[in-house]
Amino acid sequence: MDPLFDNLPPGHEFEEDMELRLWEYIDGLSTDQERSAIEHMLVEHAEWRAKYKELLEVHRGIEEVELEQPSMRFTRNVMDEIARLQIAPATRNYINKNIIYGIAAFFITVIVGFLGYGISQMEWSSTGSDSLVGVDFSSVDYSRMFNNNFVNGFMVLNIILGLMLLDRYLGQRKKEWQAA
Amino acid sequence: MQAERSDIEIIEQVLSGDHAAYAVLVNRYQSYVFTIALRYVKGREDAEEVAQDIFVKAYRALADFKGGSKFSTWLYTIATTTCITFLRKKKLETYSLDNEKVFAVADNFDGGMNANQIEQKSKVNMVNRAIQLLSPDDAQVITLFYKGEQSLEEIAQIMGKEPNTVKVQLHRARIRLKEKMQRHFAAEVNDL
Predict the structure, then answer these.
(1) Res. A154 pLDDT band, cuts 50 70 90
(2) What ipTM does this complex have?
(3) So what's the architecture of B100-191 in CATH?
(4) Distance CA B127, CA B188 (A)
(5) Domain-by-domain residue ranges, chain B?
(6) What family does the entry list (chain B) (predicted)?
(7) From CA A114, how far away is CA A135, in angstroms rounded?
(8) Which has the closest alpha carbon to B131: A15, A68, A29, A54?
(9) Chain B neighbors of A90, CB-CB under 8 A
(10) From B177, which residue of chain A is nearest by alpha-carbon distance?
(11) Which is more confident, B163 or A126?
(12) Per-residue pLDDT at B108 exceeds 70
């Protein structure tokens, strides 16, 4: 196998492979082994030399392209614009990790509490039934589930948290709108 | 003679309250950012508006620049996302490689010139025009690699791609550039 083409994906045509290797050589991205192999090919094969010359011309052409220049007033326009704005506080400053950990701890406690409560209410001595599910949903009294002080308190807390979140979001949007 | 201040020094100065120092960064990178914008937005006025927006966004988010990468890499990332957002909003016509309109535009462009005018065009101008005929992604990868002083890894970060993907894209972009030059500017290519 040729060391130049060992690492190429299957399906590459020879000419494309040659171009890819030559571009890597021109860009200075070849390994030492590849460099010496390409230099050998350039000495030995006119086809490689011709392609190298062609690619080098394109490379030099691109290198000589100049950057586009905006209008003379560009910097002044930007500075006029930012004069009306404030630098936003760094994200890491307003996202306090303690708050995130606090919220996570709250939800974990709630989930564990519910699980504990549910498990404590289970009748472990029950022998089960022939039904696959084992529960007769028609006999479940849903009104009792939502008539519990703990559940009601939890839902009220969630609503308050949701309203606080909405308030913060709308406040932020208002600030952005005023800044614009 | 005062040595040129580094980007980081200027950013620290701006963050400490000297907002006017930001003008140094704008002057330093305006042509890079404007060129990137022009690769996406085909019109100088729109490109200037987008470039201005890029600098304003960068200023607003300056406190978030952590110095983990070069400022230019961070700025070009903002430039790329801003350009893409602008294109989506405006639903501007982008010049895709397979879009026949591109060739029609190019053909008309050349068709209006006589042989002497074409001969007078510089090699640089021809390459620049050929870059403008490429898709925004191809034009950007070439611009960042050759003009933005970015490594393949940094370009990958800016474009949200893998370095190897960028390497192949750069290679193919140059093939397509060569094809464009041969197809539309054959007379000038022969003079190279």
Answers:
(1) confident
(2) 0.74
(3) Orthogonal Bundle (1.10)
(4) 10
(5) 7-90, 100-191
(6) Belongs to the sigma-70 factor family. ECF subfamily.
(7) 20
(8) A68
(9) 63-64
(10) A58
(11) B163
(12) no
